[in-house]
Every structure is written in C-alpha cells, then in structure tokens.
C-alpha cells in the first residue's frame, strides 16, 4: 500500500509489518503503524488490503543524505568502511515521500495443519473433532456441508456433491481429513480416529502395536457395532414405537455387555486410561442420551464413564469451543433428531 511517512514519529521500523498486495517495489519502504488510518488502496494496482499485523521489533532503516529532503533536520551516524566521506546517513522515517509497500508483504497466517470435512451435524465427525482437540490441534479447519429440502420434497446435497470430484481423496466421502504437513488425505471415520490418535503426544492414547493396541482395535469395533444399528434406526424409523423397541431390546443388549466389561476395569475408562476409543464411545453415548432419554439408566458403570468423560477439563474446554455443537445429531432426513424437522 501507499502511505506518507511522518517526519517526527517512527511508528514501525520494519518493512512488511503492514499487509500489501504483491505488486512491484519502488525503492525503499517503511511499514506504518497499524493503528494509523490506512489509505483506500495501492496506487499501483488498486487493491485494498489493510488488515493490521503486529510490527516486528527491528532497528530503523537508513537513507543517504543525498536521498532525503534537504528541509529536514540532520540525524547523522558514523561513517562505515567503504562509504564516501561526503555521505551522511539518516533514519528513513525522515524522508517524506510516498512509497509502495506492496513488495514487502509479510505472509498471512498459515493454513492449519488439519482440515476435517463433514455434514453440519455431530454424526460420525464429532468424535473426530474431539480427538483433534484432545491431541492438541485446537486450530484445525472444520469444513461443513449442508443439506436442504427442495420444494419437491427431495434433499439437496449439492454443497458436497459439487466439490466431491475435486477433492484430493482416493475414496471421496464424508468425513474426510486432510493433513497438509504430512500430505495424508483420509476418509472413513475409524481410519481418521486412529490417525489422529497417533498424533497425540501421550502414546497411551493409542498404542500403535502390542497387545494393548489390538485390544483397543477390538473395543473400537465393538463400539461401531453399537453405533451402526443406532444410526440406522434413527434414519429408518417411522414411529416412536420403533425407537422404543430398539431401545429396550437391541440397545439394552449392547449396554448390558458394556456394563459387564466395565465392572472388570480398575479405572473410569475402558482400559483405565483415556484412549481414542473412549472418545468415540462417549460421544456415541451422549448422542444416545440426547435422542433416547433414559437409555443409560440401569447401567451405572456406563453412566459413570459418560459423566467422567464429559466433565473432564479438556472435554469441558472443547464444549466451550467453536468446534462443539449440541445438534443436530443427524441430518434433516432422519426421523429421530434433536432439531425440528
């Protein structure tokens, strides 16, 4: 951008502390303090970019006396080796001419390492969002796609279908995870959960090999055996009686098995310590508690696991973040949901 320098106040010394558009340089330049009024745009290219940046703390740049205005006061410094005896140097902010900062653009904030894509619901991606948060990646991009109902009663999924062919995925589907640092692009929620869990600093969050790793894989598959009929029933049911029948038969059977398993454990979690399987299971239990009230009653250990997880400090911080959503749990076409149809 173009702007005038003040003669008396050296606001920001370093080039690049204010944003610019990337056009060609025109000699020496000095970034202005972002607290001052910015011009309408660059006079060279006309672009308007005036997002302020924090000025770096670097020394002022200097100009030759022959380059400055003769009407300004002299602030000389000592001559350096190789300089002419007649050259006197002065701070650059004493040169009142219009300069272009376009070539001194400082890079804007880098893109986050991870991008997670899914429908604008909790569904299968909520546990992935939570796993990223617990793994320490709290600035990931949460890319959501929406479904709307057309006038003819059909569902419009074009927000995802229009970009699906362009995605860098071998098997394009939702959810997906893009890791820009490692160049890894994944689909399938179980694969995403395992991959994110491996990025956790605490290796006990997912042991990559050994007996515990195999045990965690078994527990995850067992949790998916609970999730699949639950989600299928939420979408395919046509009456409340079907939901009640599912809760009292299929769901109760799964929770009875889980209750017996937890009675053998010494800690509040599935293996005593928090792992990525607890993240998936407790998210699933929370969805069940929201959509089928009272479904956890009669299972004290399961209810204790659910309560311990959601009241932990890190998970409570996630619930207060922008990545958490109470609903909808399912998409609009589901019979059982926690939003109006």
Characterise the protein shown here:
- This protein is α+β, with helices and mostly antiparallel strands.
- Helices cover 32% and strands 10% of the residues.
- The strands form four sheets. The protein has a four-stranded mixed β-sheet with strand order 6-5-9-10, with helices on one face. Strands 1-4 form a two-stranded antiparallel ribbon. The protein has a two-stranded antiparallel sheet with strand order 2-3.
- Helix 1 packs across helix 6.
- The chain is globular and about 95 Å long.
- The two termini are 50 Å apart.
- 29% of the residues are buried.
Present the secondary structure layout.
Layout: E1 2-3, E2 62-64, E3 89-91, E4 99-100, E5 114-119, H1 125-134, E6 141-145, E7 148-149, E8 155-156, H2 158-161, E9 176-179, E10 184-187, H3 189-198, H4 211-236, H5 240-263, H6 276-291, H7 300-310, H8 313-319
Parallel strand pairs: 5-6
Antiparallel strand pairs: 1-4, 2-3, 5-9, 7-8, 9-10
Helix pairs in contact: 1-3, 1-6, 4-5, 4-6, 6-7
The profile of the biggest β sheet is: 4 strands, mixed
- The fraction of residues in strands falls at 5-15%
How far apart are the first and last residues' alpha carbons, in Å? 50 Å
- The SSE order reads EEEEEHEEEHEEHHHHHH
Cα-atom radius of gyration: 30 Å
Helical residue percent?
A: 25-40%
Question: Tally the helices: what do you get?
Answer: 8
**Poorly predicted sequence stretches spanning 5 or more consecutive residues:** 1-44, 46-75, 89-107
State the strand order across the main sheet. 6-5-9-10
